[in-house]
Input
Amino acid sequence: MSRFLSELYSSLEAYVPGEQPRDRKYIKLNTNESPFPPSPKVLQALDKETINNLNLYPDPEIGVLRQSIAAHYGLSQEQVFTANGSDDVIAFSIMAFCGRGGALACPDITYGFYPVYARLFGVDLTEIPLKEDFSVDPEDYFGLERNIIIANPNAPTGMAITTKQVESILQVNPDRLVMIDEAYMDFCGKGCVELIDRYDNLLVIRTFSKSRSLAGLRIGFAMGSKELIADLEKIRFSFNPYNINGLTMRAAAAAIHDRDYYDRCISQIVNTRETTALKLKALGFTVLDSKANFVFASHPDFSGEALYLALKEQGILVRHFGKERIKDFIRITVGSEEEMNAVICKLQEMIKR
Ligand SMILES: *Cc1c(COP(=O)(O)O)cnc(C)c1O
Output
């Protein structure tokens, strides 16, 4: 630390992303990326005209992209906010609606960035324990008198609550903002976008990183009432109105138009998830009921760390979290069928030994 870092940030604990090693070739199943390339339409969108226009600043309204997302979900552009990855969307949202002394609640086991942002923006965060079976109990979020953020499906458990359950949280907390992070919703359903017109306290957050094979592009978005989106735009224009570059805008808009391609990718990932879960159970693993593009599993004879290290030695990267309640688990991204066969094969050898 230099002598110059503001005292505000001296005790900040930064988020630790999953490893992105460059030293050797791994079967990479640790950060929930898609095994499939983006839609071929993405490459087509990056045409000569788009490249030549890079001498100009991009559209600060991000019109092309917001309009495309809005059309996809039957909304208007004013109900859509975009940023450089949903991490940025979550950061802007926590800053805008809870910053400097506001209060927020999230599950005790969830996406690791929520507590980091809470600290960064001076937010009082309460962590609500998941139930014994790792599910979110909506009733735990009734009458908390604070804003709420829930990943649905949750990470790293993969477990989901229903739209009805989300609605119950919205109804009981009409004066609190409820942010639902649907990073993995494409792998299980439609999510709660349909509730936006009825609940002005709902913000739905999504990303192109998982189901749209575009983690490298960095695009996330939020959907909510025009008023909520205008608030987020105010923060964005106070920070960086050009946070989405011209190439990204075109590429992401092309991706969202190619429904067929992504429907096929998603259904393949869901199939592979189900067969992988069955194979793991046959090997004696406990596997949570994942609705996402990963499985969360533990084995009675091995610690989570032992499983993680053994797989890494064999050239397979999965994610292990040191947190007490989940330290026996590993999270395995659902890759291609071949990749999952390789994982199962290595685990089988390990268990037989
Ligand atoms: C991956 C993930 C994100 C971040 O997505 P980006 O758009 O790549 O920043 C947000 N929330 C959850 C729950 C995630 O798992």
